[in-house]
Amino acid sequence: MRRFAWLSPVAVAALGVCFLTVVRAGDDDDKDKIAAAKKAEPDVEKLADAAGKPDELKKQADAVVKAHDEMLPIMWQMKPVDKGGMQIGKPGTLDRDSIELGLLKLGTKKGAPTAKDLGDQAKAKDLQRMADVIRGIAEITPAYAPKYAKNKQDEKAWNDLSEGMKKSSDDLRAAIKAGDDKAFVKATNDLNHNCNECHTKFRDN
User: Fold this and answer.
1) Which of 68, 34, 35 is nearest to 137 (CA)?
2) 115, 180 in Cβ contact below 8 A?
3) What residues of the chain score a pLDDT lower than 50?
4) Which residues contact 177 (CB under 8 A, 6 or more apart)?
5) Which residue from 43, 84, 111, 136 has the least number of CB within 10 angstroms?
């Protein structure tokens, strides 16, 4: 006997409709996320522009937090460009045009930049912009602790991870400016480790 032979044509049709409904709902959800990320992008650009200027960065961070009830569209700048992420440099500058995926590759022996790469003005500029975007995003994360922390212990973990993201992105910016490839790899891997810990404990999406 063939599997599912008991299904009537009507039942098969109903299953097909359910499947299409789920797919379409997922597509609509993706479109909404991409739209929300693109809407948040100009504010994240302002944060990145203020990286390295503590007073201006705090001012921009306060404005961004006031304008955005949700943190996720800001964090989605790290996603691939076709998922709403921010474009850094020309297409192909980062692995799969994603800050998040680019960081993972940049922290490997094969993907890490050399001192010569960091001395290349165009390459260094793109990497610096990536680091500035991450530093800008790190500045706003503590403000969203109440949305994700369920208790005082969670709140402390959230704030510790936020501080870790700030420090690692500051170290990354400094390594790029100094042309220090070893410090670059360490800062990149510190960032990746910090992000992984945060995603494991708090990730909502």
Assistant:
1) 68
2) yes
3) 1, 23, 25
4) 128
5) 111
DSSP single-letter state for residue 3:
T
Average pLDDT, the chain: 90
In a domain, 168, yes or no: yes
d(CA 44, CA 64): 8
User: How far apart, in whole angstroms, are the C-alpha atoms of residue 200 and residue 205?
Assistant: 11
Its pTM stands at: 0.85
Residue 3 lies in a domain: no
Which pair of tokens denotes residue 141? Answer: 């994360």
The predicted structure's pLDDT at residue 29: 80
The answer for residues whose C-beta is within 8 angstroms of residue 45's C-beta and 6 or more apart is 86
Largest CA distance in the chain: 74
Whether 2 maps to a domain, the answer reads no
- Total domains, the chain: 1
Q: Are 166 and 124 in contact (CB under 8 A)?
A: no
Q: Which domain holds residue 27?
A: 9-202
Q: Does residue 146 form part of some domain? A: yes
